[in-house]
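sorry to bug you again but im stuck and you know this stuff better than me. what follows is a protein written twice so to speak, once as letters and once as structure tokens for the fold. id like you to explain what the token line says about the fold, in plain words if possible. anything you notice is useful, everything is just below.
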Amino acid sequence: MKKFIVGLLTDQQKQTIKRFYFYIMNRIRGSNFLINGANNDIVTNNSFLKKTKIEIVGNNNFIIIKNNVRLEYAKIRLIGNNQCLEIGDNCSLIGQKNSIELISLEGNNCKIIIGENTTIEHGARIAAIEDNSKIIIGNDCMFSIDIGMRTTDFHSIIDLETGKRSNPARDIIIGNHVWLGMHVNVLKGVYIADDSVVGVRSLVACDVSGKCIVAGIPARVVKNNTTWKRELV
């Protein structure tokens, strides 16, 4: 009977029912959703979205927001095809009224995964741009205000001998339990291993080995054999 009833519905009616279910199962406050294209979906349950804007333009794009996620004054944008954004359980992206909290995927086959229990403060700009780019952020990370990471240089650098572009997009991987201080920027191609701390206003241009503190422009190791806790002890 259920399949028979579903078969009688138009695609537009199915989308209307799906969006109604989405609002019922989550706490939505003043958020806007713009979805253009085919086979795009937002999957979430028991999360809180306040003043959050989600824009999807393209086909076969998916946003998965897991349990007990809190998004406030955030902007999420997927432009292209076959994009995937996944935000893990108990994450929070808490912005301010006039700040930019931007998670952006632009191209085709891009992916951003944010692990569970990760917190991101206002002013973040996290962008997987260019085809097949990805940003992976581990569990229990803590990102302070105005952090930035992007997989692209936004413009082309051309080798004069070959005439070919020499600066392709590169992935960014952040391990578990990584703390990024205020105004940190992470460049494309960087891997930051578990239990790292990155100091205020640092520019991370090279891999970080983990269990250490790095700081500076470019960021360099200032102390090894360390970890960190959210609470003061």
Observations:
- Residues 82 and 216 are 37 Å apart (CA to CA).
- DSSP finds two helices and 25 strands in the chain.
